[in-house]
Structures are given as structure tokens and as C-alpha cells.
Amino acid sequence: MPLGLIMAKIFVDNIEYEVPDGKNLLEVCLSLGFNLTYFCWHPAMHSVGACRQCGVVNFKDENDKRGRLVMACMQAATNGIRISIEDPRAHAFRAGNIEALMLNHPHDCPVCDEGGECHLQDMTLMSGHNYRRNTFKKRTHYNQYLGPFINHEMNRCIQCYRCVRFYNDYAGGKDFAVFAAHDDVYFGRQEEGALENEFSGNLVEVCPTGVFTDKVLRKHYTRKWDLTSAPSVCHQCSLGCNILASERYGGIRRILTRYNGDVNGYFICDRGRFGYEYANSDKRIKQALKKSGNTLQHLSKDSALQEIKDFIFSGKNIIGIGSPRASLESNFMLKELVGENNFYGGIPKQESALISQAISILHQGKVKTPSLKEVESYDAVLILGEDITNTAPMLALAVRQAAKNKPREKAYALKIPHWDDAAVREIVQGEIGPVYLLTTHHTKLDEISTKSQYTTPDDIARAGFSIAQQINHSLPTVDTADDAMQAFVAAVARDLLNAKRPLVISGTSLFSSSVIQAAANIAYALKDSGKDAGLVYAVPEVNSTGMSMMASKDLDDAIARANEGGIDALIITENDLYYRIEKNKADDFLKNCGHVLVLENLQNETTAKADYVLPAGTFAESTGTVVNNEGRAQRFYQVYKPSNDICSSWEWLNEFRNSVSDTYAENFDAVVDEMVKRYPDLQKVKFAAPDANFRKGTQKIPRETARYSGRTAMLANINVSEPKPPVDKDSPLSFTMEGYQGIPPSADIPFFWSPGWNSVQSINRYQTEVGGSLHGGNPGVRLLEPSEENKSGYFDKIPERFTKKEGEWWIIPFYHIYGSDELSVKGPALAERIPSAYISMNEKDLNKNNLREGDKVTISFSGDKINVPVKEENTLPDGVAGLPKGFEGLTGVQFPFWGKITKV
Amino acid sequence: MAETKVIPDQAIKEITELFHHVPKKSATCIEALKIVQNHNRWVSDDAVKELATLLEMSPDEIDGVATFYNIIFRQPVGRHVIHLCNSVSCYILGYEKIEDHIKNKLKIGFGETTPDKRFTFLPIPCLGTCDHAPAMIIDEDLYRDLTPQKIDDILERYQ
Amino acid sequence: MERPLTEHIKNDGSVLSLKEYEAAGGYQALRKALKMTPQEVMQMVKDSNLRGRGGAGFPTGMKWSFVPMGDHAPHPKYIVANGDEMEPGTFKDRVLLEGNPHQLIEGMIISAYAIQADISYIFLRWAYHEAAKRVKNAIQEAYGAGYLGKKIAGSDYSVEMHLHTSVGRYMCGEETALLNALEGKRANPRSKPPFPQVSGLFGKPTIVNNVETFSNIAHIIDKGVEWYKALSKSPDGGGTKLYGVSGHVKKPAIWELPLGVSLRELIEEHAGGMMDGYKFRAALPGGASTDFLTEEHLDVAMDFTNTMKAGSRMGTGTVIVLDDKTCPVGMVFNLEKFFAQESCGWCTPCREGLPWTAKILDAIEHGRGMMNQLDILSFETVYMAPGNTFCALAPGAMEPLQSALKYFREDFERHIKEHKCPWD
Ligand SMILES: Cc1cc2nc3c(=O)[nH]c(=O)nc-3n(C[C@H](O)[C@H](O)[C@H](O)COP(=O)(O)O)c2cc1C
Ligand code: SF4
Ligand code: FES
């Protein structure tokens, strides 16, 4: 229920406070800074009143001396309400409740992964329960194998029901439940097996104790207080979810959600959480390498700088290839180094054009692109051509929340507040929508869609144009394929117009500019009908938007130029050309470019062909800015100083620039300053986070907790005197535990901790209000705002209907959360979840070609051949086949394409 | 899913008939479990999975419901199930003597099945016949005013 | 003395058929009600002062009045008879279900008409196999006679009725948990508000009443409010009440008596007094989740207010007598074991507190108890007080315990000191 700005006076232990009227009382108490205990309440999932841990005494009025115990989480903060947290009865109740919860708890903190950041530990201390009176045997449970990500230890469970509420109700999971009754209740799967939901990793944070813990962390376990952590941004898709990345002994140990009230809120997806292992891979390049014969040989940093200067930069015609997975600063520095005319964005023309188009629509058009968090507030959604569960997972989670808005109005009409989650759900009865999907084939979000239609990319665009026309009749009419589609178009148009805040989601994944334009048309038409419409485009990579804002030329342009000859050297920054383009094309390009220098994280086909390779930092070893699909620039920080030669690409490039042209950026901020001067569109990047001079008092913000241990011992095998701690000249963060101990600026929070609150639940202390923005505003700055006077205008290039070809298939990409991304797949835990390659088509097409599911086929296209088994996917249109994007052996494939499919 | 179906067609028919009573198939979950149990005597993992498909639910959801309730058997039971009331009025009237008698006679305790699969012995809360305590149910037959002497005779009727 | 609810129930234990029920004047009240407006029916029930017989004694007419009425009211609306009857020591609804199911069905149809419900359910506990057969048959008979289905008894009103037999859980008796069970889910209780009257089964307005409550309705409509009120001896509510006594009494049974007879009358007159060799010690007046009453309370009138004044509740009105040859600690242990077993597992106090309570009682009863455990038990009764838990199960469970600690403290202490049960 939208809360007005009406304030209520409430009394907590006889002291008056002003709080927003009708807000949840537990939330209010937490926001006011009280230490009130709770378990089942969760800031994103709200109240169900199960754990009874938040008991306070409620008095009718000043004269009521007795009062009665109530659960703060089930109470609204209404004007005049008087409560006591300190009342001895409330204390005794809360302590007794913990005592009850702990009856069967194994008290195994020393061997529990949660120890030291356990909400149950915190609450036990806070409640004052400290003496065990139970003399009986504890009940025990069997644990289950839940896959490579999550460890299960049911004996620690305190039955707060948060796990099922998150996994099933919030994230839409189906393969998890609560079983049995009374004190036997069990949270797990019907049978052992990997948790299928894309957001399962959040159980680690949602569970207040050590039932669900991070299995990947377990492989190289470190206590929270021994981790060195930095605020970071997930590099695994274009949404830019905020993460906390933590290191010990030179390796990344785990990723946690970094709350951002505008982006990912309290959660991240499993690709983001568990996809970091590539940063620890033994394929990492840690030292400069030089080609010698057919192998690469190590080179010291100094000789590398010298040799490369002589060898590469002696040439006249040097071109640079940037990357959508490199930071703005690294792309910028490359561009500075090679010169405006010699810089090429690292993606093929087709993709580049799509991204530019999306950016232009968001900037020149008149419809706002909401933040990821705002997506949750729309009340009707249309998804056009994008399998967001697999291309932008957290967007799918946000849509799942948006899908609940309209039905919830029923509960609000009965005066049930939004935070009364159990009551709201009973009233809503599982009703969802409206959510409409128009995709090429069945996708996971179909399970929440009001209606889904499947057709070819061109026909998706046509139906999209037709929806826009039904909303704005002045647009040209478009006929759709059949009656079913016609009915769908009408229903979508009707429901979008019925909504207060309709949202259109599309993206670049189908490689169709018509789809992108159709989505824009629908959003424009809604806006013209007076709707508070939103438009979201998913783009491929973490900095696709940022790089494209800077690059005016693309990889195809570079190839064309190289074909003309005359290039002396090529510098590639964090880009595997073999992932981007077909092998023969990449081979020819590299051959045409004279000498090749590659800055890269991991060995790959491109580094194998380079003359020199320099070790570039991943998100873990570098500092930089990336721009997400929304146009939000966000800073990520180096987590630790590696003991090898790895550093940010921009640092390497800065060195070369110094030796070539004698200009040197003193630190990261200087790079940003130069960049924003050159690119006025990026002006605001300067404010994405405080600069390196920022101090609280005179202090930097420590990356290590005050309890960090082993500092003097860790390197004692090398030198008994403690080395001087590394200095971070690029950020307000320090590499040690010394520094400011209070709440840092929101963009610079390396870990969440507050006195008495050692778990992630301490986030409450960092927010202006529960679920609201962090103190001082959420991190990041938006670079793209819509234009008032719609400079874009409606699109009118409606594609022809798709016509199939005899004997050939139109092969489109299928995306997988595990498998379609370049780097995350290099980690062992995530790799376990990658399905094997396949090609999908519908039953009719299979039969026509005498194929049966599982048959091996050869796909031939423009000179290439791939062998994979076939899979039946009956929602695919006739004549269209789906092939997984980015899988091993399928990288570099340019989608979509006509291909021949023959049985092996 | 099992190759051979474990839920008989007749049970599926009975379950399907319930669908038009309710706004969604999942609402018949408890009835459906009961029907399966009526036919199969217990609800196996395979049955849970087949039901899941039929009711458009996940096996996890179904099992969450099945394991909540006392009378859905997720393990095989004997040919006859003895439910002895162990609630308060029967306690006052001495159900424990009956329990001991059955234990000695069948050599099984609560929760167990005789090796010949003839009987499974379970406690059950108050049978609502407290004026005739102690009481028990075998399969669907109610026996009241029990004495150890009566038990032997009653058990004989169930082979 | 009139016994409208039971007078036609046959002594041989067989069921009253539709024909027999009609011959005794059955379904006349329904015809009468259908000629009235729903509001008029509801008003009569309100005026009759009928209070719910499921245990809490909420005024029935008032409960119905919260159901949204009129053209804009959500549909389908539901009406549900609560025949879960799993409260230990309670055996009153069984008598009505097995003996005269049409009385229940007619009452439900009239009630359904009053709130303009479309679908009705009878929710029966698993163990009532005989009742299930008879109710099922009676529903079929009622359909056959046109009392159920489309346009019933020549009126414009239509209502369906289904029988749901449960799969065993005391929790299903709690009305919101019962709704979850009817929806095919785990029988956890629901958050209130919203109350079922506004958002109940499948999110639609729903009325849940006890079987005995519904069985009164036809009589109220048939014979009128004044007659009905006069049946009661208590200013507290109208009508008769099914009372029962179990334990070591001479003639344990169920009787229909004016609301408000004394506990003494029940035990000494109707139940024939204690069995030879047994002395009365105390009684739970209305099922397992009421407080013990003792000798000094024998003259308390068994109505809602007076039992409350005496420190207990009328509950279901089925008395469980504790005698001098039965160990009170053993009895309370038996009760708490039941409650612990039947907790749904949703809220902490109930899920964890009850098993701990039961384990402590187990230890004390079997000579392994310790004195400090009595403090823990006292704490548990405060910890699980009404309002502290999600539903009324655990507070109900604490009622016999807290009163036992009050009245039988020496017995608890003797168990601990003597390291054995003195009754063994
Ligand atoms: C744990 C628990 C079990 C209950 N069991 C029953 C029951 O078996 N039968 C019943 O009629 N009411 C039972 N009730 C009371 C119901 O919740 C509800 O108040 C009653 O059905 C309303 O009917 P009435 O207003 O006609 O009394 C139970 C309540 C609780 C908390
Ligand atoms: S598993 Fe964790 S989150 Fe789930 S109920 Fe238990 S303690 Fe809560
Ligand atoms: S947080 Fe209030 S009951 Fe759990």
C-alpha cells in the first residue's frame, strides 16, 4: 500500500518519535536504531508472525499500566501507539523464545560456517538468553545434497520459514518445500539434488543461521572477520547488481549481496554469487608473457614495459580494441593511447548497432527506463523477445514481484497493509499478473505469465508494432500471423492500458533491431495515453552500455581496416575475439594486424595468438566504473593488492601512455577527470562514488574488519617483520583494518557490520529506512534520462513476416544463466550446472527430417560445421531452431543465421 | 518418473472428477492423496511424482502436504492398521494396558509393522468416543470399551 | 425439558433417514427461511443469542453479519461446518453427525441462505468413518429431494454441498487452518485479519461454524427466538447444549441439557456419580484445552461466563473427570504430549515450547524430574499465554497445565522427591 507522507507520533519506552503513519512497527523500531530481535520478518519479504521473536508490550494509553504483549512485526505504527521494548515481560518473553529456538540447535558455532556473522548468534546475545536449561536430547535431521552451490545442515534450523518464503513465494522456486509438522518440520527438497532456482544462493543470506551456507566458500573457508572486502559490481550481466567481494590469501572467497535500494536490493542471482571462481582460476595470467616460438614465456614487469614500448609502440598505425567487460576507464585509456580514430569497441557491428539504438531510445525517447528496483513497482508487464531469466536474471526476479502488484490491490481494499505478507497472500490466492510474454519459445517466466505467445523474431516485432497501434491508433496498422496472435495483441493492449504503470521489457538478445523498436513504440504509445510507462532493455554485458557510449566504431570496422593492411600493431583490452567472432575471421584479423598486444585476465585463444600478453585485473584486482543497462554508472573497487603483476588495464595503458607521450594520470581519479572532460555524456561518472581524497575525519575506510586476524602471521614464512601495508591511491579505501569505523558513504561500504549486528541483517543500520535508500543516497549515478520532447519519435520500419526456407533453419540463440556468459563458466562450481550443448526445434520439424530427440546432427553454415544432439522444443516456430549461445564449441557463432541441419 | 504407473487408472478417474469442484487442481491435493492411499494403501515417492503431474504441482509441494498430515502414509503399512487412541479419557481408562497387550501379542510397538505385514500399530488422538474408552480403530472399524481380553478376539478377525 | 437437537436421534444407534427427519418436521424451517429475506434469517439468529459451540462461544449471528452482502459482494461465498472434533475428551459432534445428519444439513442450508453462500462444505475428521458414510448419504438424499443444488425447494436460491474428510491433524479444527486444509494445503493457521467472513476459503467470504452450532439453526427458525432463548438456563446465551462426561463415572455419556446446568448436576445426576472406589478430584469442564476445576467449583453453572469466572472455560462442554486413582501429572503429560504432537510447527512457542513441556512432564511423571523444572513449566504457561502464539492451540494447551500446577503442586513435588510416580 503506498504510504502517504502522514506522520504518526509513537512512544517507545515513553519517548516520542515521529514515524511514517501505518509503517510496520518492527521496521520502525529497527530504523530508529533499537535493538529489537526478530527472525521470520525479512525486509524484502515482510511479516508473517511465525517466530514470535519481536514481542514488545503494547499499552492502550498513558494510563494503561499493564499493557499486552504483541508482535511488533504484526503491528502498524499508528498515531499514539505506545510500546515498550524494555519492559521486563517483553525481555523475558524474547529470551524465553530464543531459549525455545535453541532447544534443538546444535550449538556448533565453532564448526559452523555462519559463525561470526550469524543472526541467531546476534539475536541470542541481544535477547539476553545465555543459560541452557534444557536437559533433554536434541532432535536431529539428515542433511541433503543440494548441488554445487549450497550446503545443507538442517540441525541448525530454527524454523523461521524464511527459506521457503524466499525460495518459493518470492523467487518462484518449485523444488523446495517445508515438510512434516510440529518440531519435526524440515526444509529441503523432496529428493536430493541441485536446487534449480536461479536465486538459490540468497538462501545463504536469508537463512538467519547456518542451515544454508555457501558451498563454494566452504572449499576455501574463511571467517567473515578475516576477509578483506570491497564494494564491487557484479560483472556477470548487464544489470550491475551491487556485490561485496571478499579475499583471503590472494583469492576471492565469496560474493555477497551489497544492498542497493535502486538496483538489486537484498538479493543477487546465482551466476553473480557463484560465478567469480574464474578470478581464482589456474588459467589466470599473473605475469607479462611474450611469444617465443609457439609458446608464451614469462617476462618481468619492467622488461615487459620496455620491450612492449619498443616493439609495439614503435609502430605508427596502432589500433585498439576495447571491451564491454572492461571498465570505462580501461576503454578510455586505450582510446587515449591509440587515439580517437584508432579505437574500436570490441563487439561486432550488428550488436553494436543494437546497443546504440537502445541507448538512443532511452536518451532521445520520452519514456523513462526504471531502475531494477523500480521494476518491482509496475503493475503490468510485457516482455518482448527476451529470456530475461537467462540474460538478466535479477530482472526476472523483479518482474516476479511486479506480477504481484495488481492482485494485491484486493488486499489493500480490505485494509491489509502490504507488509502483512501472510494475510496478503491468503487474499491474493496466488493470483498474478498481468504479465505477457512474447518470445521465440517457452521460457521460465511463462509460469507467471497471463499469456505467452511464441513466434519468430520478425513476427515478435510485428506483433509489438501492432500492440503499439492498438494503443495509439494513429500508428500504421500491422496484421499479425493468426487469430491467436490477434487476440493476444488485443489483450496485451487492453491490460497495459488498464494499468497505472505499464512496463515494457525487451533487449538485444535476439539481435533484432525491429524488436527493440517495437518495444519503444509500445512504451511511447502508452506514454502518449497518459500512462506512467517504463521501458527496460537488457543488453549483453556489464559495460556494454558504457563502452558503447564511448565507441563510435566497432569490431567489424576494425576488421575492415585491417583488411586494407598497414596496421603495425593491435592492442586488445580484455576481449577474446574468438568469443566474439568466428574463428577464421579472428585468425585473419590477427594476422592482418602486425604485432599484437593483449591485456587479459585468463588465457584464451586470443592470448595464445598474441606477441605480448599483460596480466589485467578482473573485477577483483581492479578499480573502475561500469554502466549498466539502465545507464547507471557504478564504481567497483579493487578488493586486494595481488602479489603478482596483475593490475587494472587502465594502469598498464597509463604506463604506456606515459612512455609514449609523457602524459600520466596520477591515479584513478585523474583518469576519471580526463574522461569526463572528453565525454560530457559521462560527466556524472565523477559522482558515481567519492574520490580517493575522501576521508572520514582523517581516515580512510578499511577493507578489513576490526577483528581481522593473522596479519602478522600470514607472511611470516617469507619475512618475520610485517610488511608495510599496500597503499591505495585510487580509492578512499585502505587495505587494512585501520581507518574509519562508522558507516561509510554508500558507494564505499566494504562490509555490513554494526555493534551487536554481525550478520548481513546489519543492513538495517545503513539505510534511511528499512528497504529504503542507503544513508546519503544509493550508490551510482544515472547517465541516461529521457528527453522531454521525444527526439526519437515512433519507429515505422515494420519488418516483413518471417518466411521459412526449405531445407534450412533460421537458427536463433538460446541463453542459459549457466553457460552463455564468457567468464563465469570458467569456475568449477558453476560449470557443474551447465547443460550440454544441443539444438532445439519443434516436433513437426523433427518428424519432417526423420529426427528423434537425442539424434546427433551436423549444423552447417557459412563454411562452419557443428555437431550436437537435437532436442524437442515444441513452442519454437516452424523452420526455426535454437542453439545455445556461448557454449564451448559454439563461441563466436554469429546469431541469427540460416543453417542446414543433417543427421550424422 | 517410474516406467510403470503406480497410481491406478481408477484412482486417476476419481481424482479428475474432483477438479470441477474447485478453482484450481492443487486444491484437491489432500483428497487426491487420500484416493491414492485408498487404492495403494500408502503413498510412494513415485505416486507423489505422478500426482504432481496430475495436479500441476511440484512433487515438493505435494510432499510438503503429504508429510504434514498424520494419516497419509509415506511408508508401506501392513494389511491392517490398528489405531489405538492414546488421548486423555482413554489414558484415564487405561489404554496403556491395551497397548501393552497388543505389543506383547504382536511383538511390535507404535509405528511398527509385523514381519508378516499383517498389522501396523499406531497411536491416534482422541477418537471422539470417550464415553466408551478405551477405544481403537482397525482399518475403518471402531472398537470401544476395550479390555485386554477383547483384543485377542478382535485381532483374529483381521488376517 | 425439551431436547430439540437430540430428541429424534434413535436409541439403537442408527441414523435418522430423510423420510424420518421430514416426518419429524424436518426441512420445514428451510421452507420457512426461504420465504424470509436473508437479513430476516440472520436477524433471528442474532436475536436468539446462539453462541458458537466450537469452544470459543462467539455469537453466531454477529459472526455472520461481517459477511459482505448485496450485489457487489464477492462470490462464491462459502459456508463450512467444522466437524473436526479432535479435542481430546470431546465426543458431542459425533452424536449429531451419526444420529441426525439432516438436522446439520438443514441448519447449514438455512445459514448458507442467510449469508447467500453458494457452496458449503462439511469438514469431518478422518476417524469418523461411520459419520462420513451417513453424512455422505444424507447429502445425496438432500440433493435428491431438491434441498441442495439448483433452485432449492422451489425457491430461486441455489447451494452446493460437499463432504471433506480430513487426513488427521487437530490443527484442522482451527477455522483458518481448516480453510487451508480445504484448499489442499498444510493446515497452518492464517493471519487474522482478514477474517474468514471477508476473505476465507479461496480468498472468498466464508463462515465456519461448529456442527452443533449449525444443528441449532433450523429449530430457531422453526420455533422462534423466544422459544429458543427460553431453552437456556443461562442469561449467557440461548438454547440447549450437548454436555458430556467421561472418566471414571458410572454412566459416561452425552446429554442435551439447558445451557447453564451445574457441573455437579452433570457429574452426580446425569453421569451417575463416580464409579465405585473412585473419588472426584477435579475436572476439565470442556475438553483438553480448558483449566481444571475442583470440588469447590462443582456448583458452577456450565455456561460461558461462569466457567470463566471460576478460572476456566466452558470449551466444548464435554467434561473429563480426574479421579483420585489417576495421576494428575500423568494426565497432564498425556495432554501435553498430544498438543506437542499436534502443533502445526508454524510458531516458535508452540513448536518448541510444547515438546519441551511434554518432555519435562515425562521426566517428572517417570521419576526423573527436578525441582527447577517446575519453574520452567510455570514459565512455559506464561510464555504461551494467549496472544503470544500465532493461534489458540498453545494457549489452550497451557490451560490444563497452569491449573494443574496450581491445584496439584504437591503431586508434582512428590514425583520429584520420591523419584517415581506415587500412583505406579
Ligand atoms: C487448535 C484448535 C482446534 C479447534 N478444533 C475445533 C474443532 O474440532 N471443532 C470446532 O468446531 N471448533 C474447533 N476450534 C474452534 C474453531 O477455530 C472455531 O472457533 C469454531 O469452529 C467456530 O465455530 P463456532 O463459532 O460455531 O463455535 C478449534 C480451535 C483451535 C484453536
Ligand atoms: S532453514 Fe533457515 S531460513 Fe529456513 S526456516 Fe530454517 S532457519 Fe529459517
Ligand atoms: S519477526 Fe515478528 S514474529 Fe517473527
Overview of the molecule:
The complex is a heterotrimer of chains A (904), B (159) and C (424). Chain A has 27 helices and 35 strands. Chain A has 904 residues and is an alpha/beta fold. Among the domains of chain A are: 7-101, Ubiquitin-like (UB roll) (Roll), CATH 3.10.20.740; 288-347 and 546-688, Rossmann fold (3-Layer(aba) Sandwich); 352-539, Dimethylsulfoxide Reductase, domain 2 (3-Layer(aba) Sandwich); 809-903, Barwin-like endoglucanases (Beta Barrel), CATH 2.40.40. In chain A, the strands form nine sheets. Chain A has a seven-stranded mixed β-sheet with strand order 14-13-24-23-22-15-16. In chain A, strands 31-33-32-35-30-34 form a six-stranded mixed β-sheet. Chain A is globular. In chain A, 59% of the residues are buried. Chain B is elongated, with a radius of gyration of 18 Å. The mean pLDDT of chain B is 95. Chain B has seven helices and five strands. Chain B starts with 8 loop residues before the first helix and ends with a helix. Chain B has helices spanning 9-18, 29-40, 45-55, 59-66, 88-92, 95-106, 148-156; strands spanning 80-85, 112-113, 119-124, 136-138, 141-143. Chain B has a five-stranded mixed β-sheet, covered by helices on one side. By secondary structure, chain B is α+β, with helices and mostly antiparallel strands. In chain B, helix 1 packs antiparallel against helix 2 and helix 3 packs across helix 4 (59-66). With 424 residues, chain C is α/β, with parallel strands linked by helices. Chain C has three domains: 18-230, Rossmann fold; 240-323, Ubiquitin-like (UB roll) (Roll); 328-418, de novo design (two linked rop proteins) (Up-down Bundle), CATH 1.20.1440. Helices cover 43% and strands 12% of the residues of chain C. Chain C has 17 helices and nine strands. In chain C, the strands form two sheets. In chain C, strands 6-5-9-7-8 form a five-stranded mixed β-sheet, sandwiched between helices. A four-stranded parallel β-sheet of chain C has the order 3-2-1-4, sandwiched between helices. Chain C is globular, with a radius of gyration of 22 Å. The N and C termini of chain C lie far apart (44 Å). The mean pLDDT of chain C is 97. At the B-C interface, helix 2 and helix 5 of B face strand 3, strand 5, strand 9 and helix 13 of C. The site of iron/sulfur cluster has 13 residues of chain A, from helix 4.
